[in-house]
Design a protein that fits this description.
The protein is α/β, with parallel strands linked by helices. 34% of the residues lie in helices and 23% in strands. Helix 6 crosses helix 7.
Length: 402
């Protein structure tokens, strides 16, 4: 038995809300940056959560958040929240939803689980139980059921569990928003695009000078720096978003937002990337070409010791190796060489370095003026600023503050 037109009315009612709550997911340490981004976009009720920012807005806000937020991993539209102490209770609560207000039996769907809980220790089992609750509800009510599909489903549901508190949401993004769409290749340990953009936002980079990454790998920091300098939305490279399959998708509205380039800026400086690895530079060249930003980014194979400043006040952000695949002696020497280079050649510039290796960071031999704790995958990192100057630090600070 197929679902009748009454189901269509239920679905239309759910998607008809003019303003509704949303949640933007991000990495630990980037919550405040993401909150600022959403506020600038015009979001209402912006609140910082754990690895997330909650806010509210209309359909245009949902589209803009997906297109413009550089530090969001995905944008969720909550369906309902509840308490559950085990997977059996989770199953019952999910099954209590009137699922024909969200799905047709001929739709496909997938489940994504995020779990921070001692009661629910296996996110895969949580995923199975939520899936079972949905298909069992349809089987009991309509003797038919929607299909689960990992590849390009019609709807993606997110179940977030913190302790015993559960939130079920519709995922409006689909693939994680860090997958911009410009990356054609990557090195062994590529920097996540959302983390790269978050680092740049924390550093205060806005395109105010030349930019340099002397260990650029596949070029992620370079491309994200160019996008910020030009104020190009990171979402324009993507092939699709999950909300484009929703029954309320407004193609005219989305096309207007997608094609609006009124906020783009001129960038009158240049971005330079180098790396000792020939293969890394080849990959970076492919990615830069794919992004359409070759006009603004120059790349070359170059060891650290041969690096020269492109200008007297350039902005340096880099992600050196952390030492997982290098002996400590080699990694300490690399960081010491970086510090020596910065002191000798880059007076007047600002440098930012991220690393999980605190002992290696000390080998730079410079006192950081700012530091942020960030997560690069499972690795806890320090992102540190070094203000480079000649003479004594106290004299520099006195001159800076006068």
């Amino acid at each position: 038995m197929k679902i009748t037109s009454g189901n269509d009315n239920k679905i239309r009612k759910f998607f008809a809300e003019k303003e509704f709550p949303m949640i933007a997911k991000t990495f630990q340490g980037l919550e405040e940056v993401l909150a600022e981004e959403l506020t600038e976009l015009g979001a209402n009720n912006v609140q910082i959560e754990r690895r997330a920012v909650s806010f509210s807005g209309d359909k245009a806000m949902l589209y803009k958040a997906n297109l413009h937020c550089r530090t969001a991993l995905r944008i969720l539209k909550p369906i309902f929240s509840f308490e559950a102490d085990d997977t059996d209770e989770l199953y019952k609560k999910i099954k209590s939803v009137e699922w024909d207000a969200l799905l047709h039996v001929n739709n496909t769907f997938s489940i994504d689980a995020t779990v921070f809980s001692d009661e629910f220790q296996h996110s895969r089992f949580v995923t199975y139980r939520v899936k079972d609750a949905i298909v069992d509800w349809f089987s009991e009510h309509f003797n038919d059921r929607p299909s689960v599909s990992v590849e390009d489903p019609d709807f993606v549901f997110n179940i977030h569990i913190a302790g015993s508190h559960c939130t079920l949401s519709l995922d409006s993004s689909g693939e994680s928003l860090h997958k911009r769409g410009y990356r054609t290749g990557q090195t062994k340990a590529p920097l996540n695009e959302v983390l790269a953009a978050g680092m740049l936002k924390l550093s205060g980079w806005k395109g105010q000078s030349d930019f340099l990454d002397p260990m650029c790998g596949s070029g992620t920091l370079l491309i994200e720096a160019a996008l910020i300098a030009l104020n190009i939305p990171p979402g324009i490279f993507r092939a699709s978003f999950a909300f484009e399959k929703w029954p309320d998708f407004d193609k005219v509205l989305f096309d207007d937002l997608y094609n609006d380039d009124s906020q783009e800026r001129l960038f009158e400086h240049h971005i330079f990337g180098s790396d000792i690895s020939v293969s890394a530079i080849k990959i970076a060249q492919q990615n830069v070409k794919s992004s359409g930003l070759s006009k603004y980014i120059s790349l070359k194979v170059l060891p650290l010791e041969k690096l020269e400043p492109p200008s007297s006040d350039c902005f340096i952000v880099t992600n050196p190796p952390y030492g997982e695949r290098l002996p400590s002696k080699d990694i300490f020497e690399l960081y010491a060489n970086l510090g020596s280079l910065l002191k000798r050649k880059f007076s007047g510039c600002t440098a930012w370095v991220i690393s999980s290796n605190e002992e290696a960071l000390k080998k730079i031999g410079l006192k950081p003026s700012k530091r942020y704790r960030l997560m690069n995958g499972p690795l806890e990192c320090w992102f540190q600023q070094y203000e480079l100057f000649t003479g004594k630090r106290n004299d520099y600070l006195q001159k800076k503050n006068s």
